[in-house]
């Protein structure tokens, strides 16, 4: 499967920190592929199943010795699956990777459901503040469900399994069962993943990462980041276990299929999510050997996602050439400086024939050029101040962007032309809009007023002044008259200066 170009831009800091794409098995601590029946079907496939094995939430009534044929792990798929009431059927015949976990519920009851499972060892103490959860889900609600309880009618793919604790949560938020919502930290804000069609496979990844004293959540649906990142104090992330296929107390049971459920004890990059999603699309397991399947994953990694985007990332057939080549495109205010080892010196874009999985580093940097010669770099103008790097006076008020930012402290994007015209018309003495007339020394909090007696022919013969204001001094420098007076900590203060022409 050749990957189409996909631009993924994530928020990040301004310091370039190159992070190479990691092997998906790195940090993988729990993986459930549901290829076997009964308890073996929900045993952890990482590390020989020694830890993080699942336990059916409904005991022996459902799942382990299912009362309903075809329930629980190892579901072999059925186009006419009979639900809990078994009066109508629902199509659960579309595979993802081999067999799937079949989850069914009785919407008339808050407790009746089969197939969902709990992992009692996957809690905050095990996962820490940097972890990721991935699952494929296929919502296929039975047409004969007759419940009216709104809470019961909701369908959950996974949720932390503590009473009144939904530190980790992803499921539907409406009685129609197709609008999905993500939560973090119990009472923190929600991210709406949106309405997703029933009767087809979808992919969700929750990425948790440390952000100071907070834990931040990024949500990906079908390979793309959705919504805004929300965060919660890390101290609030105290969940003790995870449910898959049901809400925190075992109700809100999912009605459909789950597959390729996995948990990592590390955060993910956008390219990690892309690989995970495209593996599922190609019917390849999370831990599948790509080379043995005649595939390879190419990860084009920006040194900092805030600085630019890259093209060419994707899952490819071996010996395919990437259409359009591998390419890097800087964001405004940044420049592309080259490819990292072992691709140093390659052009942009450059052709690449896929022979193995590889990370291709793209290095970006701040644009230190000053295209409009206004004293501000292109990076400062586009990223920090939002001004135009090719126009020294973005608001056309005759005061340069640099002068407004560093001297007058006015908004360089809001014209002060009326005030400038008034000054030019009334101040005179050859003062222009970019002349520095009044400056403030923040170190000693003094103000310096510079005036030029343009019409005087005896400037150099003026007598020294003895200002009446305590602390005020007067001097001459380069034909200018300098008057210096103590400043003030106030943000605004008016001064009146009077003089008499000799």
UniProtKB/TrEMBL annotation:
Superkingdom of the source species: Bacteria
Keyword Disulfide bond: yes
One Pfam family named in its UniProt record: Laminin_G_3
Record keyword Coiled coil present: no
InterPro entries xref list: ConA-like_dom_sf, LamG-like
UniProtKB keywords: Disulfide bond, Signal
Database matches in Gene3D superfamilies: 2.60.120.200
SUPFAM superfamilies referenced in this protein's UniProt entry, alphabetically: Concanavalin A-like lectins/glucanases
Domain LamG-like jellyroll fold stretches: 129-271
Protein name listed in UniProt: LamG domain-containing protein
Species this chain originates from: Luteolibacter arcticus
């Amino acid at each position: 499967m050749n990957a189409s170009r996909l631009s993924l831009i994530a928020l990040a800091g301004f310091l370039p920190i190159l992070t190479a794409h990691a092997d998906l098995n790195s940090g993988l601590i729990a993986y459930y592929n549901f290829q076997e029946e009964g308890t073996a079907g929900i045993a952890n496939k990482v590390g020989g199943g020694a830890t993080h094995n699942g336990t059916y939430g409904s005991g022996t009534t459902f799942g382990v010795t299912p009362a309903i044929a075809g329930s629980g792990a190892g579901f072999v798929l059925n186009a006419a699956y009979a639900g809990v009431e078994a009066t109508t059927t629902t199509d659960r015949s579309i595979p993802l990777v081999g067999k799937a976990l079949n989850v069914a519920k009785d919407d008339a009851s808050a407790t009746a459901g089969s197939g969902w499972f709990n992992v009692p060892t996957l809690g905050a103490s095990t996962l820490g503040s940097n972890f990721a959860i991935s699952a494929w889900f296929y919502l296929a609600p039975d047409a004969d469900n007759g419940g009216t309880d709104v809470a019961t009618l909701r369908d959950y793919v996974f949720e932390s399994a503590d009473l009144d604790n939904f530190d980790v949560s992803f499921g539907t938020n409406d009685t129609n069962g197709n609008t999905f919502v993500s939560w973090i930290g119990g009472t923190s804000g929600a991210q709406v993943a949106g309405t997703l069609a029933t009767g087809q496979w979808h992919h969700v990844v929750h990425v948790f990462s440390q952000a100071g004293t907070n834990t931040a959540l990024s949500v990906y649906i079908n390979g793309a980041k959705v919504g805004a990142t929300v965060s919660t104090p890390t101290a609030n992330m105290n969940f003790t276990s995870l449910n898959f296929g049901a809400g925190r107390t075992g109700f809100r049971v999912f009605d459909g299929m789950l597959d390729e459920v996995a948990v990592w004890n590390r955060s993910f990059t956008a390219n990690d999510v892309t690989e995970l999603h495209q593996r599922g699309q190609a019917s390849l397991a999370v831990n599948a050997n790509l080379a043995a399947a005649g595939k390879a994953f190419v990860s084009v990694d920006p040194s900092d996602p805030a600085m630019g985007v890259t093209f060419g990332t994707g899952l490819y057939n071996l010996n395919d050439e990437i259409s359009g080549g591998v390419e890097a495109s800087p964001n405004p205010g940044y420049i592309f400086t080259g490819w990292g080892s072992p691709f140093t010196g390659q052009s942009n874009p450059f052709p690449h024939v896929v022979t193995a999985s590889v990370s291709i580093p793209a290095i970006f940097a701040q644009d230190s050029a000053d295209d409009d010669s206004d004293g501000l770099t292109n990076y400062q103008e586009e990223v920090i101040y939002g001004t135009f790097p090719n126009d020294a006076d973005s608001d056309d008020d005759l005061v340069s962007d640099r002068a407004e930012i560093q001297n007058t402290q006015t908004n360089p994007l809001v014209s002060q032309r009326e005030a400038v015209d008034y000054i030019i018309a009334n101040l005179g003495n050859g003062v222009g809009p970019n002349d520095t007339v009044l400056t403030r020394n923040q170190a000693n909090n003094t103000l310096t007023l510079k005036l030029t007696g343009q019409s005087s022919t005896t400037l150099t013969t003026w007598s020294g002044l003895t200002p009446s204001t305590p602390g005020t001094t007067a001097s001459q420098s380069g034909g200018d008259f300098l008057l210096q007076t103590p400043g003030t900590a106030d943000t605004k203060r008016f001064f009146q200066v009077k003089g008499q022409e000799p």
